[in-house]
Amino acid sequence: MTINQALDKLKRSRFRSSFHLSKEDIAYVRQKGIETIKTHARDFVRKRLAPAYIENDGSQTPTKGHPVFVAQHACACCCRSCLNKWYKVPKGIALTEIQQEKIVKLLISWIEKQCEK
After folding, report:
1. Domains contained in the chain, number
2. What value does the mean pLDDT of the chain take?
3. Which of 1, 7, 77, 78 is the most exposed place for a label (fewest CB within 10 A)?
4. From its phi and psi, is residue 31 left (phi > 0), alpha (psi between -120 and 50) or beta?
5. Which range of residues forms the domain containing residue 80?
6. Angle in degrees, CA 21, 41, 100, rounded to 5
């Protein structure tokens, strides 16, 4: 599935499409720059999503507090259960660097689209 295909599919979900960046989130993205946000996304994905087993899977990603957190929920990349349901990424196996980078690209694409509005 391409990024655009994933974003189109997510738009059709009432729950996933209910997430939007706040004015403060957009200001934060503009202030820090997209490269810094991308670095944050890589770090969050590596620490909170990539391990094979996550102690608090399903509740490890806050719904606010950082634009990447909002994007993770909007893109169904907030926990391993959602990754499995939406993208067929198996649980119990650590994410590869390639998988992590694909997730980061999806998150950043969503954030960039939100900042265009």
Report:
1. 1
2. 95
3. 1
4. alpha
5. 3-116
6. 125
